Amino acid sequence: MANSDRRVIDKVLVFFGVVTTLVLIAFGLIALDGYHFANDQVTSQLAAQKIYFPPLGSSALASPEIGPYLNQYAGKQLLTGPEAEAYANHFIAVHLSEVADGQTYSQVSEQALANPTNTQLKAEEQTLFQGETLRGLLLGDGYAYWKFGDLAKDAAIASFIGAGVMLVLVVAGMVRIKKTR
Question: In this structure, is the dihedral angle defined by the CA atoms of residues 142, 143, 148 and 154, taken in order, positive or negative?
Fold first, then answer.
């Protein structure tokens, strides 16, 4: 292959390297913006709910199904996705399992429809509905949205690293083009 042919190939590769670098930087910036948006939304929405973890040493944290998971957050306001997951899975879920012998809302609701005069079933149905709804919102709107934000942050980091590698390759290609004159 002639030197001039090799230079043309090098120039084409450098051009595509520059384009790839710019695309990776743009993608990284968009992903980083998504990360910040998701985290800001989760934090502001959770803050508005004014949910606080029980204080350290509280009897609410005494259960071995609760304490080991929530002691680290004791007394804090629930503001992050991981906190929402911990509260939903290790506080609300534990308390819901104590209602109606561990049955779910749909199971108790079915029984309540069949026995409309049973006030205990109606109270359990209401408690389970409220608890499962809050738990679902914390897991779906809090933890899951937060997790998507974290994935966007990881994508941004990977994209910026890729852009850095491509930039090094572009510079190496430009050096090679200059050397082959």
Answer: positive
Return d(Cα 171, Cα 13) in angstroms, integer: 11
Kindly give the residue spans of alpha helices, DSSP state H, lying in the chain. Answer: 3-49, 67-70, 81-87, 93-97, 105-114, 119-137, 145-179
Residue 78: both structure tokens together: 């629930």
Whether the pTM exceeds 0.90: the reply is no
Q: Domain total for the chain? A: 1
pLDDT tens digits for 42-70? 999 999 999 999 999 999 999 999 999 99
Q: Residue 168 in 3-state DSSP?
A: helix
Across the range 106-133, mean pLDDT stands at 95
Tens-place pLDDT, residues 127-165: 999 999 999 999 999 999 999 999 999 999 999 999 999
Mutual angle of helices 3-49 and 145-179, in 10-degree steps: 160
**Count of CB atoms within 10 A of residue 83's CB?**
23
Residue span of the structural domain in which 50 resides: 3-179
